[in-house]
Amino acid sequence: MEMKQRMGKRLVLFPLPLQGHLNPMFQLADILHSKGFSISVIHTHFNAPNPDNHTNFTFHPIADGLLETEASTADVIGLFAALNAKCVSPFRDCLSQMLSDQGEPIAFLITDAFWPFTQAIADGLKLPRIVLRTTNISSFVCFAAFPLLRQKGYLPIQDNRLEEPVAELPPLKVKDIPRVSTADPEVVFEFACRTCNEVKASRGLIFNTFEELEESALSAIRQEFGIPVFPIGPFHKRIPPSSSSILPPDKSCISWLNNQSPNSVLYVSFGSIVAIKEAEFLEIAWGLANSMQPFLWVIRPGLVRGSSSGSGATHPLPDELAEMVAGRAHIVGWAPQLDVLAHPATGGFWTHSGWNSTLESVCEGVPMICLPKFADQMANARYVSDVWKVGIQLENGLGRQNVEKAVRRLMVEKEGEEMRERIACLKEKATLCLAEGGSSHKYLENLASHMLSV
Ligand code: UDX
């Protein structure tokens, strides 16, 4: 690992306590630490990180005041609203205390974009704030366009217009616009506007992506936001990432993969939040079984709605199905995903198209089947299938025949092979951009000097 001399400047990081946000924030922390910055992390009690996994950093817990009913990802917008209301005073007290402590001067505050309340506090304390947006740039452009999309009549989304193209944001269709199911869609709209306004008031915007993947979105966001933008990804490929996993990964899947042929296994995982109905679970399971391909499936506690969301057993397959796939399938509650994707036996990834999963798949050259469910996932899937052409969207429903067909297209047919070739080119670009002279390398140098210039 590149380890610069300590330079006596501290950064304070404030991650959003969800898996898909914690991973990139801690990877960013590792990167900036390797550039010589000291790192302090302010964190909520909810999904608190384990300091033992990051012994170089100092940790400052704050009381998030979440009620038991609020401390859940069932309604993420409700969770974000509660956190942004309840963390204000504890965060301000913690940060001012840190600023008044003797010790290394604090150069910058880095927060997740979904902590909009922190901009006013940073301003009040005269501390510059930089934002990490954990999605890609293209979907963020769409998120930032909510006022325009409302003005043009796309929002609120009408069910009879889902297939229409969004002329202002090609190649997106109406159904690809970020959507989150919550009681009041107005709350989502307001949260999006507030988030973007507070990003515009910040001193810079970091993305876990790379310029070659999203050139036009990068110029659009620069123009729209008027602040420096730093696409410095893929984060996890810069330095070996430390673990920020909330659930313990089951390493048995690696020994299982060791016994499978190259590119033969479909890895199936829908991230940390997506929940599906029992009926969908069964169609997925039957489709996988009928495809006759080996698969490794992450059935996370809580994946199937109504089943236990605590840690514990995964949702069982019906007996008949379990017998049918015995020897050809391996099921775990949580996987060491980076290792699984990098394994030579893994030949395809059926994903919910969360941005971390998508980028991780690109970095290992693994083509995808996309089953986006909410937020940025639909836009990610559109880029995967229509722009980068490295994956298949399951657009005609989740029936078992559709599933079986998609799996065979990806794993057996020529179409899948062509996608594997195209994603191998993206993988190469993802590697080159990090090397001396590469785009992400250059942006990281810029970011580091930006943070030292204040
Ligand atoms: C959420 C949103 O859904 C996503 O769209 C947004 O871009 C970020 O926040 P999540 O749904 O969890 O995240 O998906 P994703 O972005 O793919 O992040 C999941 C992370 O968990 C990945 O880094 C992945 O490597 C890790 N993971 C997932 C595991 O380590 N093991 C698993 O079994 C599954």
Topology of helices and strands:
Elements: E1 10-14, H1 19-34, E2 38-44, E3 58-62, H2 76-86, H3 88-100, E4 106-112, H4 118-124, E5 129-133, H5 137-144, H6 146-151, H7 185-200, E6 205-207, H8 215-225, E7 229-231, H9 252-258, E8 265-269, H10 278-291, E9 295-298, H11 319-325, E10 329-332, H12 337-342, E11 346-351, H13 355-364, E12 368-370, H14 377-387, E13 391-393, H15 400-411, H16 414-432, H17 439-452
Parallel strand pairs: 1-2, 1-4, 2-3, 4-5, 5-6, 6-7, 8-9, 8-11, 9-10, 11-12, 12-13
The structure holds uridine-5'-diphosphate-xylopyranose.
Uridine-5'-diphosphate-xylopyranose binds next to helix 1, helix 12 and helix 13.
Q: How would you describe what is shown here?
A:
- Belongs to the UDP-glycosyltransferase family.
- GO terms for molecular function: quercetin 3-O-glucosyltransferase activity; quercetin 7-O-glucosyltransferase activity.
- The structure is a single chain.
- This protein folds into two domains: about 260 residues, Rossmann fold (3-Layer(aba) Sandwich); about 180 residues, Glycogen Phosphorylase B (Rossmann fold, 3-Layer(aba) Sandwich), CATH 3.40.50.2000.
- The strands form two sheets. The chain has a seven-stranded parallel β-sheet with strand order 3-2-1-4-5-6-7, sandwiched between helices. A six-stranded parallel β-sheet has the order 10-9-8-11-12-13, sandwiched between helices.
- Helix 10 packs across helix 15 and helix 15 crosses helix 16.
- Helix 11 links the parallel strand 9 and strand 10.
- Helix content is about 40%, strand content about 15%.
- The model has no long low-confidence stretch (mean pLDDT about 95).
- It is globular and about 65 Å long.
- It contains 17 helices and 13 strands.
- With about 450 residues, it is α/β, with parallel strands linked by helices.
- The structure holds uridine-5'-diphosphate-xylopyranose.
- The site of uridine-5'-diphosphate-xylopyranose has 27 residues, from helix 1, helix 12 and helix 13.
